[in-house]
Amino acid sequence: MTVEDGGAPLPRVLTDTAALLASGTGSSGALWRLAESGRQLDANVVRVPPGGRVGTHAEPDLDVLLLVLAGAASLTGADGEHALRPGVLTWLPHGSTRALEAGPDGVAYLTVHRRRPGMRIGPPDAAARLVPGGGDRDG
Known about the structure:
This protein is mostly beta strands. It contains two helices and seven strands. It has helices spanning about 15-25, 125-130; strands at about 30-35, 40-50, 55-60, 65-75, 80-85, 90, 95-115.
């Protein structure tokens, strides 16, 4: 995170998605990731090749925003299929089941969601305390 002399963080340009997509022709997967320290968000630019799929899944904990940057895709949810094209911003609420299939030219999209907390090492009985009725102790 860039900080000015007074200690406040500064806004800054992270990437040019148009240039990123133009230079990454033919590649697939994550083309860019938000990696700045101290962030509260995670973000990725992802390319899926023509006919490629992100299989059916549900994200139990995080809402996700998905913005199509290039190409097209079909998003399938419990309510049916939704056509995605450049400029379409989609909210994927936590707990929703979804799958994505890239169109004939593939698709590139930006996802943004709250950052997952890091793994923490705790005392050996910490996990038992998270289970209802687990970790009961006298006292």
